[in-house]
Structures are given as structure tokens and as C-alpha cells.
């Protein structure tokens, strides 16, 4: 059977109905002084890109729609929201690049026993407030409807059997219980639910936060619209982000996921991994928190 954009030749081999030499001509336009990595990857990118266009018989009108979608994502992207990144996320591209990066590290022998990484996502903000061990990242006033009757404690002992969470603070951020990050929600204070957590001298961390809820990709941009056109749901299961750093170790970008969440098996950005599932257990004897979660991070040496 011939793919659309191709015809079968007399010998049965697929023969394109479009100029068969065009892609080679575009590839050959690369000059000898091209950047070495681009020289390596562009032939593959161009073959796949042109192959896709021929395969689906891409028209100019459709190309223009795609270009406008990327332009719109670019216009919407700021230091608080990365809409272009979100498009990559719903297409599975950040999750795939994360898998490839992890495999390359693993093959180089420097990755064994580390906690798995997963996507950073489009809502990361650097320079969150520094939080001492046992502090809180709930910056809303105590009587605000944004603060639940009791928060949740996330805490982790130093692991055994080679696990470790050493040194400096992990950077941590998450969506609120209403499913909105602070930059999406005028009712939340700047940097609400984000912090750079400092560990104690043994590498333990502990923080009060809000138990996260499932989170929907915002419908107001090209990512949300594409999901709708694809008849896909927009939800990510409840999660907490961590970027864990320590001198002498590789930075780990990851998330932990509430194993009870109804979308735990169908994350719309495909980023859940079994090793990152956590249970929120009832927390006894602490009037500041109703639930508690423990998670140990293991870093690989740099
Ligand atoms: C998030 O982690 O919140 C996220 C990740 C990818 C796309 C959208 C949101
Ligand atoms: Fe997130």
C-alpha cells in the first residue's frame, strides 16, 4: 500500500509523486562551516519534516495555520508561562527528550540508582524564596480561602542503601489546590507555593505546602485548542515539582505524583513514572498539617 504523497512504481517500490530530489538539494545547501551539531542533525530533521509534508499532502493553507499556531505560542510565552514548551509537552516531546537524555547518561555509566527525572514543564520560575528546613511555602494570609484548613507536610529522611539527598536546597514548585499556578491566578501572592528548600546538615528536607490537585492545560492558547481538536483531555495528575541540586552531583529535575489521582495513568504530557508515585498519608499530632508525604531523592555524581 502506498502512503499518501507516494505512488507505487512498477517494481512495487514507493516512488514519491513530488520532486524526489528536492530534500537532497535543501540538505546540500548546508555549508562546510556549519555548526558541527547542526551538520549532524539537520539532514535527519529535513528528511522527517519534508517526509511528513509529502506524507500528508500538506497544503499552503495548512502550513499557514501551523505557523500561526507557533507564532501565537511565541507571543504568549513570557518568563512566567512557556506556551511553546507546553505545545512540545502535549506532543510528548519533552518527555521523549528526557528519556533520551537519561539513557545517554545511563549509558555513560554515571546514572545508576538515581531518582528518575521527568519534565520541567512550562511554569517554572527561578529565584523562589529561600525556605529553611520545616518552613512553609504557603504565602497567602492564614485566613485566605487559598489556605486549606490544614496544609500538608512533605518530608524525607536521608535514604539507606545508597540513596541520598545531599547538600543544598532543592527548588520546589507546584500548582495550588485550585489547579492554578500562582502566575495564572491573581488571587495568589507572588511565588505562592514555590520555594528553594534548604536541607539540614544531614541532607533532610521538610516543608509545609498544599496538597495539589489535578491540573488542566490552560484552554486559552494553542496547546489547549489543539487538545480540544484532538479530542484529548487536558489533565495532568496532581504533582509536586522538584529541582534537586547538590555540589558534586548532577541536578535532578523531577516531580512526584499522587498515586490516588484519577489521571495517574493518562497524564496528558506522558510524564508519570512508577518510581515517582507517592502516597499522602494522614499526619498525626500536627495541627499545621493533615497529610504527610515522604520521598527520598537519590542523585548521581557529576
Ligand atoms: C506542569 O508540570 O504543570 C505542566 C507540564 C507540562 C505541560 C503543562 C503543565
Ligand atoms: Fe506542574
TrEMBL record:
Domain Intradiol ring-cleavage dioxygenases: 174-299
Signal sequence range: none
Xref: SUPFAM superfamilies: Aromatic compound dioxygenase (SSF49482)
Cofactor(s) listed: Fe(3+)
GO molecular function, one term: catechol 1,2-dioxygenase activity
Keywords (A to Z) from UniProt: Dioxygenase, Iron, Metal-binding, Oxidoreductase
Highest taxon of source: Eukaryota
Domain Catechol dioxygenase N-terminal, first and last residues per copy: 36-102
A Pfam entry, by short name: Dioxygenase_N
Presence of the UniProt keyword Oxidoreductase in the record: yes
One GO BP: catechol-containing compound metabolic process
Keyword Iron: yes
Family: Belongs to the intradiol ring-cleavage dioxygenase family.
Protein name (database record): Catechol 1,2-dioxygenase
